[in-house]
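Protocol step 4 of 6.
Sequence for Oxygen sensor histidine kinase NreB (Streptomyces yunnanensis) entered exactly as in the expression construct, tag removed. Do not edit the line below.
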Amino acid sequence: MSVELPLWRALTGYRILTLVYVLGLSAVAYPRYAHPLGAAAYMAALTLWTALTWRRTTSPERCTRQFLLADLGFAVGGILLTYVIDTHARIMGGAPTLPSIWTAGAVLGFAIKGGWRWAAVASSIVAAVNLVERQELARDTVHNVVLVWVASVAIGYVVEVARASERTLAHALQIEAATRERERLARDIHDGVLQVLAMVQRRGAALGGEAAELGRMAGEQEVALRTLVAGGLVPRQRTVLDVPQDAAAAARPADPGPLPAGPCDLMVLLAPDAGAGVTLSGPGSPVELPAAAAVELAAAVSAALDNVRVHVGADARAWILVEDEPDAVLVTVRDEGPGIPEGRLAAAEREGRLGVALSIRGRLRELGGSAEWLSVPGQGTEVELKVPKGIAPEGGRRGRARA
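Step 5 output, structure tokens:
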């Protein structure tokens, strides 16, 4: 809902309530007018105008500039008619004009529609006409016109600030949505295209000849694609020969196919990762999660194993432990490598290496979970992946790495 919509509704209510008040004032003062029938005719016209145009002030689309000018004309005309219809003694005594406080509704319409500048112009016109009707700078008249001028300008300024804030919020939401979509695409690219390019680059360099040239080109494309996925915000100062080697040794299918409708057993999804060098341990009963959460968690485990193969070696031993806790599922991936030096993960993310930043940490963050790296030099590395059961809370804790 627009931030200014309640103001339009309030203006509609103000016009109706002030009309009732003005009709009451006119009925009480009817015998004292110099031309009572003229006052009654104006009140009838004002009532008909308000009744026919009440929907005009319910939204900014309906409240056009032409309507605002006509509405202000009704108010100004009523003020000038007061000089003809009412007696001179009542006017000089400070009697209210025919439209009285209904006039402020016309000025507030300008303030909400066009901001403080429109409000200043409309309230200045009303102030000048009131002074002409009174024919002197009476204290009560000056007090009323200054009050209307200040109030309308203040409301117009508030409306402009609210509109600017609404535009800023909408822009921020668009940026957030685009960033989340870019991270999702980046994870898919890392799990597929980048892994293939890294594999071609390494195999080509090992084979030599024409394959080496093909590998060099694949390496260049990997660097360019990593920069594009990362948003192009980090300046890259590496050559093709310095391409990062933290991609997986083999590509995974980019499209896992349609997800099942109900819960999914995480152990079934992790079973293909187990092998001669990877030991999978878990409960004897199924570890069920929503299908989307189970697939993302299994992909994060696979990304962690890919990092083990690249940084520790293709024959490195790794262990996967699945724990089914009452409120969450905890998966621990442990290797026998040398450990991660302090600050290495943050540096890798700055250099555009996306395995930890997106394929692991990003997946868990979107599930409302967490990813933690526990590493001791010479004693390997543990990656703890935790996903809450049921409805995932918004956001999630960021993973941390420590030496």
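Step 6, annotate. The beta strands are 263-265, 278-281, 288-290, 318-324, 328-335, 370-375, 381-388, 401-402.
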